[in-house]
Amino acid sequence: MKDSKARKGDSAVSKKEVKKASKNEEKEVKRKKLTSVKVQKPNKRPNRKERKAKKDPNQPKRPPTPFFVFLEEFRKTYKEEHPNVKGVAAVGKAGGDKWKGLTDAEKAPYIAKASQRKIDYDKSMAAYKQKQDDEEGSAEESDKSNLEINDEEESEDEEEDEDD
DNA sequence: ATGGTGATTGTTCAC
DNA sequence: GTGAACAATCACCAT
Known about the structure:
The protein is 57% helix and 0% strand. By secondary structure, it is mainly α. It has a domain at 59-135: DNA Binding (I), subunit A, CATH 1.10.30.10. Helix 3 (66-81) packs across helix 4 and helix 3 crosses helix 5. The longest helix has 34 residues, at 104-137. The protein binds a DNA duplex through residues 2, 4-9, 12-13, 15-16, 19-20, 23, 31, 34-35, 37-45, 47-48, 51-52, 61-68, 70-72, 75, 79, 86-97, 99-100, 111, 114, 118, 121.
C-alpha cells in the first residue's frame, strides 16, 4: 500500500515523527528502563534540515553502523532475490530481522569494519574541525591560496588479515 | 526537477 | 548518563 505516503505534503518532517511515534511504543519499553530522569533538553542539535542547509562538503558524515555495513551487503543479496521489490523499507525490515538473527561472531566482521570506519571518520573529523578553525582564524585572510589542506592522504596499508 | 519519505539498528554528538 | 537525531538506499509523489 502506497497510500501511506498519500499526503506528505502536509508537512514533510512530520512524517518522520509519525514513524518514530510508532517505534516509540516499542522503544518505550526499553526507554522506561533507562530513564527515570528526564534530561532537560536545552536545545537539541540543529534540525537536520538546517544541516543540509549548510551543506558542508567538508563535514564528514557519521560512519555507518555495523548494521549498516551488513545492510549494504544484504541489500545486494536482497535485491537479487527480490528484484521486483522497490523500496528501502522492505530491505530495511528484512535486514533488521536477519541482523537480529546473526550472532556476535557473525556480526564481528561487520563491527570490526564499522570500527575501522570510525577511525577514518575521526581523521576526517579532525581535518574538518581543523579546517573550520582555519577558516575562522584566517577569516580576514584573503589569500587563502596560501595553504590548502590535503583532503587526500591515503595510507594504502590497509590489509586485514584475520587469522583465528 | 528536486527533494523528502519510508524502515532498519547502531553509533555519535551534545547537554 | 541519557535522549535524540542521523547514517544509506531507491523508487516514487508532491510541490
